[in-house]
UniProtKB/TrEMBL annotation:
Similarity annotation: Belongs to the FAD-dependent oxidoreductase family.
Record-listed E.C. numbers: 1.6.5.4
Pfam families named in the record: MDHAR3-like_C (PF21791), Pyr_redox_2 (PF07992)
GO cellular component terms attached to this protein's record: cytoplasm
Requisite cofactors: FAD
Free-text function comment from the UniProt entry: Catalyzes the conversion of monodehydroascorbate to ascorbate, oxidizing NADH in the process.
Record lineage: Eukaryota, Viridiplantae, Streptophyta, Embryophyta, Tracheophyta
Superkingdom of source: Eukaryota
Ranges that cross the membrane: 66-84
InterPro entries reported in the protein's UniProt record: FAD-oxidoreductase/Apoptosis (IPR050446), FAD/NAD-bd_sf (IPR036188), FAD/NAD-binding_dom (IPR023753), FAD/NAD-linked_Rdtase_dimer_sf (IPR016156), MDHAR3-like_C (IPR048618)
Protein name as it appears in the record: monodehydroascorbate reductase (NADH)
The keyword Coiled coil appears for this protein: no
MF-aspect GO terms: monodehydroascorbate reductase (NADH) activity
Length: 461
């Protein structure tokens, strides 16, 4: 039996939230041996969004005359969300590079007295006894726990889809997933790829696969892509743009099964509407589920996550939940929300650590006041969204998919107030302007006038 280990603070989970929490602990003051991060993965926390962009670029670094260090610096500057000829690799995207901070190499954790316990899965958590147990029987004791277990991908095999366990059907969540995909893309050069799902992963990976010279077909059941965020008007631009890039889009149906070749590799995707698509590679992006099974029956839950207050404290003393698994009070809208996004993962981690350290010193900090923020880059496109996407919508700008430099956006208006803003092709200043109006929620007198003013409504405030 392995020796029991004890720490003042334990972070369970090794994703973005864990890395940013470690940085905040270091900033706030940490004694050697006080903090441990326990992660299933074999590498330190990294910026997960990089996986669906530069990491799966098969082009080698020596194909351009400019130096790798220049490319990497440029790459990090735009938070890994742009596509360059050069492949992004570790250690280039360890946290906290994605927010312009210092990259936390393995050595960084040692220098800051943080124990990084990798390749270790926690299979049992006894919150009353403040004890965690790994799959190999290792016992960890803690005084304060940060649950940062993140999400797991929804798999087609969960729904009993025939042939869903065939080789070359991929999901993208962790570095190992990306490595397997890169290998398959190399083997199946110039082959056919089918992307199942029309959300973030579907759009970003379809772009990435096309850039890498695969023939790409997207399949999703909804009437348009990114239905949780995009309006039909916004989506029509991206679908048109992707079609112009040579990506085939099949809407209104789902993958009902897969056939394989003699090697057990996927060969065809059978659609529910009866059609079949030839495929050398299939990538599935149909959502994710918060990983909260460790805490079932021990912590109050809400909306699929662990319920927290504005400091990410759960119903159990000395247990905090951050990132994807936290259902927290969204002060701006006066309701409980759970947010799956890297921006919230970073900020919730920092808030929780500040709250922990403040409580130890008998101090208080402001409540978490989060403005929902989503963004993406694909091909030469770049969009940002702030606020809430409910109410009436007003579109503005040039949303012609054939435009050399499209720039357009949408506002959401509820009860006479502007509460959400989307912008494609904005400058940093313009993106700050739409963030500002989404937070300040200015009154809107007339939708027609707003439509005519367009982006200037935000930039003049």
């Amino acid at each position: 039996m392995a020796e029991e280990k004890s720490f003042k603070y334990v972070i369970v989970g090794g994703g973005v939230a864990a890395g940013y929490a470690a940085r905040e602990f270091s900033k706030q003051g940490l004694k050697p041996g006080e903090l441990a991060i326990i992660s299933r993965e074999q590498v330190p926390p990294y910026e997960r969004p990089a996986l669906s962009k530069g990491y799966i670029n098969l082009e080698s670094n020596n194909k351009r005359s400019i130096g790798f260090s220049f490319v990497l610096a440029r790459f990090l500057t735009i938070l890994f969300f742009s596509w360059y000829t050069d492949k992004a690799t570790l250690p280039g995207f360890y946290v906290c590079a994605g927010s312009g901070g210092e990259k936390q190499f393995p050595q960084w954790y040692k220098e800051n007295g943080i124990e990084l316990i990798l390749d270790t899965e926690i299979v049992k958590a006894d919150l009353a006894a403040k004890t965690l147990v790994s799959g190999t029987g290792q016992v960890f004791k803690y005084q304060t726990l940060l649950a940062a277990t993140g999400s797991s991908v929804t798999r087609l095999s969960d729904f009993g889809v025939q042939g869903a366990d065939a080789k070359n059907i991929f999901y993208l969540r962790e570095l190992d997933d990306a490595d397997e995909l890169v290998t398959a893309m190399d083997v199946k050069k110039n082959g056919k790829a089918v992307v199942v799902g029309g959300g973030y992963i579907g759009l970003e990976l379809s772009s990435a696969l096309k850039v890498n010279n695969l023939e790409v077909t997207m399949v999703y059941p909804e009437p348009w892509c990114m239905p949780r965020l995009f309006t039909a008007g916004i989506a029509s631009f991206y679908e048109g743009y992707y079609a112009n890039k040579g990506i085939n889009i099949v809407k209104g149906t789902v993958a009902a099964g897969f056939s394989t070749n003699s090697n057990g590799e996927v060969a065809e995707v059978k659609l529910k509407d009866g059609r079949t698509l030839k495929a050398d590679i299939v990538i599935v992006g149909v959502g994710a589920r918060p990983i909260i099974s460790l805490f079932k029956g021990q912590v109050e839950e809400e909306k699929g996550g662990l319920k927290t207050d504005a400091f990410f404290k759960t119903s159990v003393p000395d247990v905090y939940a951050i990132g994807d698994i936290a259902t927290f009070p969204m002060k701006l809208y006066n309701e409980m929300r759970r947010v799956e996004h890297v921006d919230h993962a970073r900020k919730s981690a920092e808030q929780a650590v500040k709250a922990i350290k403040a409580a130890e010193e008998g101090k208080s900090i402001p409540e978490y006041d989060y403005l929902p923020y989503f963004y993406s880059r694909a091909f030469d496109l770049s969009w940002q969204f702030y606020g809430d996407n409910v109410g009436e919508t007003v579109m503005f700008g040039d949303n012609d998919p054939k435009s050399p430099k499209p720039k357009f956006g949408s506002y959401w208006i509820k009860e006479g107030k502007l509460i959400g803003a989307f912008l494609e092709g904005g400058t940093p200043e313009e993106n700050k302007a739409i963030a500002k109006v989404a937070r300040t929620q200015p009154s809107v007198e007339s939708l027609n006038v707003l439509s005519k003013e367009g982006l200037s409504f935000a930039t003049k405030i």
